[in-house]
């Protein structure tokens, strides 16, 4: 029994030893730059608790995005998604009532299905923290929560050009929600919950 256990241990050590040089051939760091289209869900509670839902809308737009990924194994990676503060217009029944800015860093755990292949699809899940600022709604009478914490889901594919460079296509669904206050009283709750469609390039160091 002891001999068989020792054989298994030595066999496992041998596999690890064989894998280390292979992993060492490729850097664990990957940086991507994307152009991303933000498409908000535009869901909201009735304003003042009465009337129709979904009257508040947040404008869609294109933004730049940079993410940094670290591969713990060939299949598993962590990705930090970053951008600069973004300004969005807010409308009520189609009429602009103001704007706000937000910064939505997102941290995701990714699983890559075909690491090392020319076409490598992946999925991810994680958490989003959105900091809302520069709120200017209804000439100062309107307010939004200063932050939002929610889930994030992701699917994408890296298409290799060579050992370092790749083309990336990516889609994310991010949970961003905020209470809307008017003159200090809660008037509605907006569910921005955008879909983010991105395309860009990646570089593996």
Brief characterization of the structure:
It is found in: Cell outer membrane. The protein is mainly β.
What does this structure look like?
The chain is mainly beta and 205 residues long. The chain has a single domain (28-204), classed as Porin (Beta Barrel), CATH 2.40.160. 11% of the residues lie in helices and 61% in strands. The chain is built from one helix and 15 strands; from the N terminus they run αβββββββββββββββ. Strands 1-4-5-8-9-11-12-15 form an eight-stranded antiparallel beta barrel. A hairpin with a 2-residue loop joins β13 and β14. The longest helix is centred in the first third of the chain and has 23 residues, at 2-24. Residues 4-24 have low confidence and may be disordered. Keywords: Signal. Pfam families: OmpW. It is found in: Cell outer membrane. This is Outer membrane beta-barrel protein. Its main location: membrane.
Q: What is the number of helices?
A: 1
Oligomer, anyone? Answer: single chain
Strand order of the largest sheet: 1-4-5-8-9-11-12-15
Q: Could you tell me the strand content as a percent range?
A: over 45%
